[in-house]
Specification:
By secondary structure, this protein is of the alpha/beta class. The protein has a single domain (2-183), classed as Rossmann fold, CATH 3.40.50. It contains 5 helices and 10 strands; from the N terminus they run H-E-E-H-E-H-E-E-E-E-H-E-H-E-E. The chain has helices spanning 2-11, 32-45, 61-72, 131-143, 161-167; strands at residues 13-15, 19-21, 53-57, 76-82, 91-98, 103-110, 119-127, 146-156, 172-182, 185-188. The strands form 2 sheets. Strands 5-6-4-3-7-8-9-10 form an 8-stranded mixed β-sheet, with helices on both faces. Strands 1-2 form a two-stranded antiparallel ribbon. Helix 5 (161-167) links the parallel strand 8 and strand 9 (172-182). Helix 2 crosses helix 3 (61-72). The chain binds guanosine-5',3'-tetraphosphate. The site of guanosine-5',3'-tetraphosphate has 22 residues, from strand 2, strand 7 and helix 4.
Length: 189
């Protein structure tokens, strides 16, 4: 999506260690006009797929998912990261490692909000190693829900996540795919 690519070129900062900083418009300060355009683009791409719910994960996926949900006219469920190991209640749960932060989160969703027969669109801000989306796919599987696809804002295509998720048969629509980057230079696919 040209508008997102231009914004990344203008305001994105490539930091050491393959990290793209986009906190001026995506995951700290948030440009909701841009989110609206992204949501409409996913709605166009997944039109006719019968999406009835959007599933995302804390934290920075939530804002993007909420605005996208307006374009689809469906609710958003976000998977919660929990620090406690002993989670009571009726939840689906999965362990999600973060390669970037070197941590593992237990991620949960109430059984009340993921149902067999749901047609889910997964939404997240970044696709890097794919651990977050794999966690959401696992939660959907536990619920017997169907995954229509995944809408990603920025895919770092030089990292393995995109290939891993597509190899599972999930349609991934990334609005900006970065082929390579280094400080001061970003190349899109
Ligand atoms: P994944 O997102 O594909 O699972 O890959 P990875 O485990 O490497 O990512 C760990 C976290 O780092 C994720 O956020 C992800 O969104 C974020 N991330 C990955 N690459 C970049 C990057 O280049 N720039 C920025 N700004 N973030 C990146 P998280 O810790 O799970 O959650 P949250 O930050 O949304 O709370």
């Amino acid at each position: 999506m040209r508008e997102l690519e231009e914004r990344i070129r203008r305001d994105g900062i490539v930091e050491d260690g393959d990290v793209l900083k986009v906190d001026g418009f995506l995951n700290h300060q948030m440009d909701v006009e841009l989110f609206g355009a992204m949501g409409r683009e996913w709605a166009r791409l997944f039109a006719g797929e019968g999406v009835n719910k959007i599933l995302t994960i804390e934290a920075s996926g939530i804002g993007i998912a909420c605005i996208a949900a307006q374009a689809f006219g469906v609710p958003v469920v976000f998977a919660k990261k929990s620090r406690t190991k002993n989670i009571a209640g009726d939840v689906y749960r999965v362990e999600v490692p973060s390669f970037t932060h070197g941590t593992v989160s237990t991620v949960i969703v109430s059984r009340r909000f993921l149902l067999p027969g749901d047609r889910l669109l997964l939404i997240d801000d970044f696709l890097a190693n794919g651990a977050a989306l794999e966690g959401l796919i696992a939660l959907a599987g536990q619920a017997g829900a169907q995954i229509v696809g995944a809408g990603v804002a920025i895919e770092k295509a030089f990292q393995p996540g995109g290939d891993r998720i597509r190899a599972k048969g999930v349609r991934v629509e990334s609005l900006a795919r970065i082929k390579s980057m280094s400080p001061g230079q970003i190349e899109f696919c």
